[in-house]
Amino acid sequence: MKTPRCLTFILCALAAATGPASAAEKFNIIVILTDDQAPWTLGAYGGVEGVSPNLDRLARGGARFDRAFVDTPVCSPSRATFFTGRHGTQLGITDWISEEEEEDGLGLPESAVTWPELLQKAGWRTALIGKWHLGRKPQFHPTRHGFDHFYGLLGAGTGAMKPTFDFPDGPRQLEGCTADLITDDALRFIAEHREGPFAISLHFREPHEPYGPMPKEDQDAVAKLPLTLPDLPGLDRVRVERDTRAYLAAVHALDRNIGRLIAAIDEQGLAERTILLFTSDHGYHIGQHLVEGKGNAHWIAGGVRGPRRPNLWDLSLRVPLLIRWPGVTQPGQIVPQMVSNLDTFATVLAMLGVPAPAVLRTEGLDLTPLLRGEPTPARDALFAQYDLHNTASARMRAVRTEKWKLVRRYDAERLDELYDLEKDPDEMRNLMPLVRSRPAPPELAPVIADLDRRLHDWMHSIGDPLAR
Predict the structure, then answer these.
(1) Is residue 7 scored above 50 in pLDDT?
(2) If pLDDT is split at 50, 70 and 90, which confidence band does 305 have?
(3) What angle (nearest 5°) sits at the alpha carbon of residue 193, between those of residues 355 and 204?
(4) Strands annotated E in 204-316
(5) Beta-ladder partners of 292
(6) How confident is the model at residue 22 (pLDDT cuts 50, 70, 90)?
(7) Is the pLDDT score of 38 beyond 60?
(8) How far, in Å, CA of 247 to CA of 209, rounded?
(9) How far apart are CA 251 and CA 353, in angstroms?
(10) What pLDDT was estimated at residue 24?
(11) Which of 62, 78, 226, 243 is the one with CA 20 to 30 A from 271?
(12) Which H or E element spans position 254?
């Protein structure tokens, strides 16, 4: 593999800074990333009990972040941010990467530095198992971004059963359940590298559409569970209940496999030196706001799958985040602060004692003080961005504080949104029509001025193309 000159300099500097360390002194880490999974799917976050018993157990045994968000509520840019600690606009990935864009050569830039690269250089054996979706060309392959081992799919998706995975000799269809197959490979990798240290990124396709069919045991597990559906005029309750049960069956399938993974770690005596981090690439709606999907959701009012509804609602941005760090996190620990998937880069490196190169700019924070229960200044704002261009068009930026969220539509000002999150946490009442009314409520003018200032300062600080 040819390493870019700037990355070679960074990695050499890192090697000099870290120094030698024995395998026994280093933690293993398994980072589990699901696809399209909202927190409301887990019992630990108030979801239906019985769908996610293994993840609920993980939450009770470690830290649960109650307000974790992503930078962009769609697959590829979110994954790029997750690996690099940088925004999608800084990496040239602002929407999910389509097949046409893959052919045109779009992917995670070779110059982008990922935390798996830095761990690999510092002595970890690394694996990407499951979904990549950051470019299909050889220069974007996971093994060019810090992974010793790859097993899974390079593109957007595959079926829940009989998946097509990518191998060095080309695509190949396999027998079995996708979630089971990638977990089987993770268990093989753990067994082969149990002396450690190892770092696994286990990326489930579940519960992405099509939600199923899932194995019968997963369908049966949710078939009779009581569901609380959104109570909205025009909601097709038959469709929403059907889709929700299929979606939860997919969650049960991945949860069942996470149970296998945790059992294997315990059986091999690795639990006390293995960090587990569980999250998703973004949130999801099924009926909430009368849509189905994430940041590029479809309207489903009146029983019809309608056009896209681009959005930066919390339900699209908010994700589950669970971390069990032996000797550090406390059982049942709750982290209430706002955090972002931008923080993954700095946090993974800090947990494993691998310093980030001083010459490298990233945008996230190190969350380890929160995990240690140390007093930490709270973030006073989070930001989000999404330039939708596949199947629809929107250019959105948002700023979210404890009380307010402002969404600016740079392609259609009349579609701007303002929410009072204290009075309207579900974001059901857009206050922008009031702002444009005459007379406008005078108390909202300084609120919008402050939010706009924060938003513009942030956009300029990251070199956002829209800031120009």
Answers:
(1) no
(2) confident
(3) 80
(4) 274-280, 285-286, 291-293, 296-299, 308-310
(5) 286, 298
(6) low
(7) yes
(8) 8
(9) 32
(10) 54
(11) 78
(12) helix 237-267
**CA dihedral sign of residues 239, 320, 400, 310:** negative
Structure tokens at 210: 């099509």
Q: Reduced to 3 states, what is the DSSP secondary structure of residue 416?
A: coil
State the Cα–Cα distance between residues 292 and 45, nearest whole angstrom: 20
153 within 8 A of 172, measured Cβ to Cβ? no
Stated as kind and residue range, the H or E segment containing 6 is helix 5-18
333-348 pLDDT, tens digit per residue, is: 999 999 999 999 999 9
Rounded CA gap, 66 and 134, in Å?
Answer: 28
The answer to whether the CB of 431 falls within 8 A of the CB of 419 is: yes
State the residue for tokens 């995990």: 371
The pLDDT mean for the chain works out to: 94
On whether the CB atoms of residues 264 and 187 are closer than 8 A, the answer is yes
**Contact call for residues 409 and 388 (beta carbons, < 8 A):** no
Q: What percent of the chain has pLDDT over 70?
A: 95
- C-alpha to C-alpha distance for 394 and 386, rounded to whole angstroms: 8
DSSP at 46: T
Q: What is the 3-state secondary structure (H, E, C) of 92-153?
A: CCCCCCCHHHHHHCCCCCCCCCCHHHHHHHCCCEEEEEEECCCCCCHHHCHHHCCCCEEEEE
Whole-number pLDDT of residue 2: 41
Q: What are φ and ψ of residue 408, in 5° steps?
A: -100, 130
Calculated CA dihedral for residues 84, 327, 18, 198, nearest 10 degrees: -60
71, 385 Cβ separation under 8 angstroms = yes
Per-residue pLDDT at 378 exceeds 90: no
Closest CA to 389 of 36, 74, 71: 74
CA-nearest of 71, 128, 133 to 97 is: 133
The tens digit of pLDDT for each residue in 124-160 reads 999 999 999 999 999 999 999 999 999 999 999 999 9
